UniProtKB/TrEMBL annotation:
<keyword id="KW-0130">Cell adhesion</keyword>
<feature type="region of interest" description="Disordered">
    <location>
        <begin position="1193"/>
        <end position="1298"/>
    </location>
</feature>
<dbReference type="InterPro" id="IPR013098">
    <property type="entry name" value="Ig_I-set"/>
</dbReference>
<feature type="domain" description="Ig-like">
    <location>
        <begin position="262"/>
        <end position="350"/>
    </location>
</feature>
<dbReference type="Pfam" id="PF13882">
    <property type="entry name" value="Bravo_FIGEY"/>
</dbReference>
<dbReference type="InterPro" id="IPR003598">
    <property type="entry name" value="Ig_sub2"/>
</dbReference>
<feature type="domain" description="Fibronectin type-III">
    <location>
        <begin position="1058"/>
        <end position="1150"/>
    </location>
</feature>
<dbReference type="GO" id="GO:0005886">
    <property type="term" value="C:plasma membrane"/>
</dbReference>
<feature type="signal peptide">
    <location>
        <begin position="1"/>
        <end position="29"/>
    </location>
</feature>
<dbReference type="InterPro" id="IPR036116">
    <property type="entry name" value="FN3_sf"/>
</dbReference>
<keyword id="KW-0812">Transmembrane</keyword>
<feature type="compositionally biased region" description="Polar residues">
    <location>
        <begin position="1282"/>
        <end position="1298"/>
    </location>
</feature>
<keyword id="KW-0472">Membrane</keyword>
<feature type="domain" description="Ig-like">
    <location>
        <begin position="448"/>
        <end position="535"/>
    </location>
</feature>
<dbReference type="Pfam" id="PF13927">
    <property type="entry name" value="Ig_3"/>
</dbReference>
<dbReference type="InterPro" id="IPR036179">
    <property type="entry name" value="Ig-like_dom_sf"/>
</dbReference>
<feature type="domain" description="Ig-like">
    <location>
        <begin position="135"/>
        <end position="229"/>
    </location>
</feature>
Amino acid sequence: IHLKIMMTKKSISASRVSLILFLCQMITALEVPLDLSQPPTITQQSPKDYIVDPRENIVIQCEAKGKPPPSFSWTRNGTHFDIDKDARVTVKPNSGTLVINIMNGGKTEAYEGVYQCTARNERGAAISNNIVIRPSRSPLWTKEKVEPKHVREGDPLVLHCSPPVGLPPPIIFWMDNSFQRLPQNERVSQGLNGDLYFSNVKPEDTREDYICYARFNHTQTIQQKQPISVKVFSMDSLNETISANLSDTDFYGAKPLTERRPTLLTPVGSTSNKVELRGNVLLLECIAEGLPTPVIRWIKEGGELPINRTFFENFKKTLKIIEVSEADSGKYKCVARNPLGSTHHTITVTVKAAPYWITAPRNLVLSPGEDGTLICRANGNPKPNISWLTNGVPIAIAPEDPSRKVDGDTIIFSDVQERSSAVYQCNASNEYGYLLANAFVNVLAEPPRILTPANKLYQVIANNPALLDCAFFGSPVPEIEWFKGVKGSILRGDLYVFHDNGTLEIPVAQKDSTGTYTCVARNKLGKVQNEVHLEVKDPTMIIKQPEYKIIQRGGQVSFECTIKHDPTLIPTIMWLKDNGELPDDERFIIHKDSLAIMNVTDKDDGTYTCVANTTLDSVSASAVLTVVAATPTPAIIYDRPNPPFDLELTDQLERSIQLSWIPGYDNNSPITNFVIEYEDGMHEPGVWHYQAEVRGTQTTVQLKLSPYVNYSFRVIAVNEIGRSQPSEASEQYLTKAAKPDENPSGVQGIGSEPDNLVIIWEPLKGFQSNGPGLQYKVSWRQKDVGDEWTSVIVANVSKYIVSGTPTFVPYEIKVQALNDLGYAPEPAEVIGHSGEDLPMVAPGNVQVHIVNSTLAKVHWDPVPLKTVRGHLQGYRIYYWKVQSLSKRRRRHVEKKILTFSGNKTHGMLPGLEPYSSYKLNVRVVNGKGEGPASPDKLFKTPEGVPSAPSFLKITNPTLDSLTLEWGPPTHPNGVLIAYTLKFQPINSTHELGPLVEIRIPANETSLILSNLNYSTRYKFYFYAQTSVGAGSQITEEAVTIMDEAGILPPAVGAGKVRPVYPRIRNFTASAAETYANISWEYEGPDHVNFYVEYGVAGSKEDWKKEIVNGSRSFFVLKGLTPGTSYKVRVGAEGLSGFVSSEDVFETGPAMASRQVDIATQGWFIGLMCAVALLILILLIVCFIRRNKGGKYPVKEKEDAHADPEIQPMKEDDGTFGEYSDAEDHKPLKKGSRTPSDRTVKKEDSDDSLVDYGEGVNGQFNEDGSFIGQYSGKKEKEPAEGNESSEAPSPVNAMNSFV
């Protein structure tokens, strides 16, 4: 077969994935050589949203290539931008990149706008994205008076940062006057908005220098908010102050700390919404206050948080999900909990998506008269709109091209000519963004050219893939052929893979793959060829590996490392210790084949690795060194044996040889046996195979050999501790060649097509060939027709295809091995068949016999075996329900299939629905597929008994009557003729009274039962009937109400009767993959605690029990095994033996939860509103009492006594109320204040600014912002006037804080 490479897709095995990725990159990057005419291609451009530094020149990139070289033009805000009229704007030579000079008095704001670049030549025009230029901004903080914060110990506190709005937004962090980061934890943390949140304050939170900083990275400046003072009053200090000013008879004190349940500081309310874009980072935040400090937990309702993309930050107050997709949409709930209770907030997340590519248009090179397509497919949420442009102009108004037809997201080209060359732009846009792609159509007529350099040399290691390049170009696309050797034999067969980009892959290169390879490229305009050379090298091997050593301190040790390599490669040997470099110590001595360590110390303990490198491969081997203390009397050490040595070969014969050896030291554990291994140096060098095993007392063995094998032997000793290292290899022994002893196994004959026979076999392994020139003689003949054998001899294959055979006829097949010395023994014959084809006829005389209302038997006549045209696998019945005769409406047709193996002539159809019309047909099946269907056969199932009524409700109880309402059966299974009601009273000891039966017409749906006894429980049995009989019954119980003398009159508006003793109804279980929702309805005494018991269905294991929290009527079973059937029931604590009936469910695909969110219940919302109103009233009363007259209650007493020692507080004193303590004038605790000269001692913190270059002596503006600079930025001259709102005052140390 003459193999040609065309630009089509081929299937390549998974073992070559890395190669495929490389080759795919080459294919997608296929380009037109620059010496040929081609439209422009944009190669580099600035980002769509380009924020520039206002202190630097603006550079807007636009680079393009093409032939002829393209010219460039720009638009600004949709109109032509005349570069020549603006002296500050220049264009780089041979480029479209704009440079706008701002450094010499220019203003960046004057050049804000939307820019777009166009690159144009005679073959078309390419356009860039819309590039939005905006200068970065770092405005100052708005001046405000910051009031001191006075808070009581245990109360919550929020310090607002409110940073100025910058572009891009600043990074926020809190520090003190010493430039030290304020510590944060579960109690104190910074929110996403920059505010500092305290769940509850402590006395140690008192300080005067809470400072919020905003760092603007783009302009490298930092702004500072005015410091905030916080004073926390502890209950102890308040009580001491109060008691010091009261008489002994007075009693007054501040209340002790009161613990409280959590409430959310942010976000507010119980629900909120958030929209995020696909691919972005989703950040959700919940910060709560409470005492003790609450902890936060996150869950996703109805699903799980993504495992590898979910992170928790800020002490679990922030949920971070990276690379969000539409699947991450849903409801996320944060729960804040402490010992007193919990609160929660639900955030509904909606993930939208800016457009993203499914198939971006690619450049198209066509020859005159050829056809082609440009495809532009994108997705997004909402779905993006696709529009086309040509040479930058909307295609609707562009000059017409008769070879072009636009069909939505595809442009179809037919019979193109040179004038069809152009650049097409595809724009995909929605409300969240847009994509713009350029793709040219270049019409060329070019003979082939090969781009790979001539006589390129490739070198690979044997048994590894070899890739020989043949990069090419031509229009039309050339066909590629590969040849090997001087004779120019065409490469074919399974030994090679031919890639679309021209590359030849040899999956497993052998030594005989070495040689010269010729690549030929041809199209209708010409032909060109190129030669490359391949050299296959022997692999590098470590034949003597380092061994595990135990050495005493002060001793010396040596590790060996002997390598074998290709003689044309130069190896280098490197030693590592614990995967790092060897210590720089003269005790380590490296020889050619070993490493020696003198005067060993404890530090030398570790793993030593020998690494042998060549330019093509690398191998390594490791050994562990254990250093032990010297012992005066060495203990007996039990270890693996030392390897045998002095191997000797004697008595060499053609098929046997004698091997003898000397055992090594057994290390105090007797040798139990020896294992002999061999290496075939001719066919599998470096691979050792098991040969034989002998007793530990034996040192000689007679070995059987195969012809044409280059044997080497080694021996391994085994004791109870383990196996020794292998011995040194023996000398080599090459046995003489001989005819093959055996033939291939696994011979089969099967057809892949109706007109062929594929003969396959298991090829012989290398040493089974017994000699050079291994080939196979493949013979076949049609069975029972007297034909002569047809034979062919093949090599290096394990399959042969015989074409032109009749369809599905038997063949006799045999495969015989041969080599240069002769044939193997005569092989056994096997029977195979040529290819199958679909059956020709359908089964006839199809009959249906109704067995009962749910079962039918189908008969048919078998088809003639000659018409099967393949191996008969059986018959297949397709059947489907046409309609239900009771419901008289058609339903969605769902075909069911039953297959009956072998030459069957009948089959049973189970599971039919009663009183329904069905159709069926029968088909014969062989290995190729199904034959034609028989004519559809219509049949009807008879009536059956109905299912139970869909419901039975008992309402409106009176003294002597009850009202019954019911629904018809879900599956009537026929024509209903009546309902039957049976009922009987139940006395207080649960004994049943006489049974009463009532027959009710089928068209009734309710009944009033009169003349009943008052205050009596009745049990009702209700079922429907068809002409076949009665269906399943439904039961209920109810009680008539008491008379007027009774204790409990009926509740106002009572509609449903409540049972006297407990009962569980409507027990359901709905399962997902790993959990199940269990729900039930309970009737009986209040305040009952439930439990759920479950286990694997059919298992004898004890029931597992789960307690239900509170008296809920639902429960979620978690941690279930997918695809498993479970049994489940519900019981009530304290009610002995009271459980529901069992239900069985099977875990599977996740189902929506049936649980009801308590936050959406009316009673719960009303209760919360009442609580909130009560709290509001209490706060108003407290506020009025506290602020009335601006005094505490004790103030009136003090005014009456007029104690001269008590002085009123100064306005800016910062003390609490109207009292001052001597301690108030003492310095605050360490860290709360800084020295007046604002110097910082280095030893206070490793993060202080004295460690950071120029930023130490920072100054401050009036508003408190820094005046300084980051290191590495030259100071710019201040802009003229006062128009700039920026403070060029960075401190380079701040980079280390965020």
